[in-house]
Amino acid sequence: MDSRLLADATSAIGVGIGVEAEHLPEVPADLRQGGEHSLHLYQRWANHYAQAIHAGVLQAQERMPSVREIRERHEVSHTTALQILRELESRGLIEARARIGYFVRSQAHAMPAAREPIELVPFDARGKGLESIGDRISDYLNKARLVGTFKADLGSAMPAPELFDASFLNRQAVALLKEQPNLLVHGPSAPFTHPEFQAAMARYALTFGLKIPPMQVAATLGNSEAVNLMLDTVTQPGDMVAIESPTFYGIVQAVEARGLRSLEIPSSPHTGMSPEALELALRTYPELKAVIVVPHLQMPQGATMPDSHKERIVAMCSRRGVALIEDDIYREFVEEPGVHRPCKAWDTDGTVVYCASLSKSFAPGLRLGWMNGGRWHDKVQMLKFTRSRNMPLWPQLLGARTVGTPFYMRHLARLRDRLHRQREQAAQAVARYFPIGSRLSLPRGGLSIWIELPESISTARLYDEALALGIRVAPGDMFSNTGSYGHFLRLSCGMPFTEAINDAYRVLGQLMHAQMGLPPRG
């Protein structure tokens, strides 16, 4: 590290934020000495700021230095400065406020941060004698289906209906039918996707860094159909597909249902799929046919991938001719200011297949998504036509008239704000009721939280016990076949945090403490 930084690092932190240098915690030895350390540079500086926050030197509601200020004071890159702030945010120590900056948060619900993967070795379940994860997932889902209704559904990562402006959508739908009274009695006609929808999505994609010709936009039945179509296009039964570990169980089901081998790539709860682990996988398994990645608010961990990682992963897949299937369903929920570019923004040869959805952000009842199939686009469109013919026109036109408009952008801002408050309330409940030793890094947006519990807790057992009491959760072993997540839990924050939801967290805490043979907290 540069000697100028080493000479007065503590003083540099204090400048401009109302803190006297002598009152800050001592600069860590590894920063003073500049020696090798197991932590990345951004993590070491984040630890230093964290000490100042925990010591009360940086207090609640106090403004943090900006990315530029951190870059200049500590002589680090723009990326490292941003990672320092993101690391502190992931620990629940600071929060981003749109167009203002980062501020220290109240520590009423601060908890230990989620841990990074212990190893960066890809996991191939073949030959390990593990049960079908698809059967395990189906068993969980069937148990919930038999219950039917719940006192508290914390297992489904969807926004509550009341978070949408149903009146506006209804007016738009009626106006569209008045404009085109025969819309529901005329069947779809060529082309496969309506030109108005194609043009609208192409314009909208420009706002987040994608230049997709309108004719290269295909409407789909949500995001899942897009991912499924691509798997059918680029793989055959027995082929290998790389997925994040852990990942959304729907992706696991799609891979296994096609007789494909899933290679689980270790993923950080803060930065997503490890580029180093993926590079090892691509070298070790030359037969790898596709990689599926969720770059923004990855499910279930909530990680948002840095641009540098996106660029590296795209380049690696391009060099080896491997399809990169980008599931970007949660991009619109990211709460950080600025443009959040998908992996597709670094695609120069059609390696990246971009899959998006309006189901969670616009109108869940329409089940509307869209995709660009990269260099396989024409083949994907023909495969879709063979399977399900053309998409219905009404949802396409409704989406085309709404997405990207001022109303839509205001709706997204309100939705993110409500979800932010609901995640905060959920985190407070976790800190209040769950066992000591639980770990949680609040994501920078999204619909759920991912919690690491003490290792003695079985969330599979918790699932059954909670379900018997009318509470649905999502146990960790739904999201991976490695056996590493049996004490993890995904909880939905999509619904308003009512007294009933608070009671559900309290009951979950009681069940966990009972498993540990301890009295409950709170």
Please report the total strand number as a whole number. Answer: 17
Low-confidence stretches: 1-38
Question: What about the largest sheet?
Answer: 9 strands, mixed
CATH superfamily of the domain at 128-162 and 409-516: Aspartate Aminotransferase, domain 1
Query: What structural class results from the helix and strand content?
Result: alpha/beta
Contiguous helical run count:
18
Give the overall pLDDT as a whole number. Answer: 88
Q: What is the percent of helical residues?
A: 40-55%
Which CATH class of the domain at 128-162 and 409-516?
Answer: Alpha Beta
Strand content: 5-15%
Our measurement of the CA-to-CA distance between the termini, rounded to an integer number of angstroms, reads 46 Å
- What would the CATH topology of the domain at 128-162 and 409-516 be? Aspartate Aminotransferase, domain 1
In short:
This is PLP-dependent aminotransferase family protein. By secondary structure, the protein is an alpha/beta fold.
Characterize the structure shown:
Residues 39-107 form the HTH gntR-type domain. The chain is α/β, with parallel strands linked by helices. Among the domains are: 3-109, Arc Repressor Mutant, subunit A; 128-162 and 409-516, Alpha-Beta Complex (Aspartate Aminotransferase, domain 1), CATH 3.90.1150.10. The protein contains 18 helices and 17 strands. The strands form four sheets. Strands 3, 5, 6, 7, 8, 9, 10, 11 and 12 form a nine-stranded mixed beta sheet that branches. The chain has a four-stranded antiparallel beta sheet with strand order 13-14-17-16. Strand 13 and strand 14 (448-452) form a beta hairpin. Residues 1-38 have low confidence and may be disordered.
